[in-house]
Amino acid sequence: MNLLIKSIAFVSILSLMACNGGDKNTDKTKTEYADASKDDANEIIEYHNIVLNLTDKNDRSLKSMDDNLETIAKGLKNPTDRFAFTGLMRLTDFGRVNFSKIKPETPPSALNRDDVNFFKGKIKLLNESYKSINDTYKTLTDYIKAEDFKDDKSVNGFKLLDSIYSQGKKYYAVNDEILNKLQVIGDDAERVILKTHPLKEFIYALKDDTQAAAALIALMGKHAKDYKKGESEIKKAYDALDAQNKKHIAMSFPSDSENSYKAKSFGDFNNSVTDFLASARKIMRQGAEKGSLTNENADELYQKKDMMRVYYNSFVD
């Protein structure tokens, strides 16, 4: 049974969500936004972060749903077991309150017309798809509560599961389009802000670590079912992040800077990377011993990666 999230939770919504560090040694322009005014660049970055929050919220909710779908799928195969459907968790809304005037459905005027139309259309599709998944999930849970599987030998239950999976594929196709576009416009707008930013080298350090962590997670996801096949590549990615982390910890934060108060946030981020690496080592050890990785491994790295994002945002805010 294929469930909502692709094979294992490592898959790479995480790598797509990671901020793109870009090439900090080049002024190559990807879009017109690399020449935007600072006001426009700030507006674009704000929209970028608001949409990321939406996709992040949805993804966490769908991951929570996927855990329940696994339980339901097993239960439908053996519905006579009185414990078949125990352990279903209440879905949680992981969203943050958005106080901005900018909403995901209303892209800012700083974007060109084509991009405004792109985001309006894709966000509408994303919201509709997300609602459809949740509506079908409610139908499925009502079916379970009413024990209707006793009447049809679980046939309609499996049909609803297949429907959720099909809708999930469509949702993530749109989601990936949005994230790819966000990555381009966000990177170019950020270049404008960082050109004269006194802490740009520290921000690039955070971005590099975020990218490297996402790359490591993506590799683990790629080789989750056959860890041995990707073990050397995973170890190489781990070593690269570990070396970066040590280098960034050793960076001397300017004590005379008007932004010196951000030194703690920079240290907190570096500590979160160290914590991420500790979890990665443990999971890599398990992968080497067992030959595969689990959803529980993914959940742990997901949480550690999210803490990196929290400290990243704290530093750049």
UniProtKB/TrEMBL annotation:
<protein>
    <recommendedName>
        <fullName>DUF3829 domain-containing protein</fullName>
    </recommendedName>
</protein>
<keyword id="KW-0732">Signal</keyword>
<feature type="signal peptide">
    <location>
        <begin position="1"/>
        <end position="18"/>
    </location>
</feature>
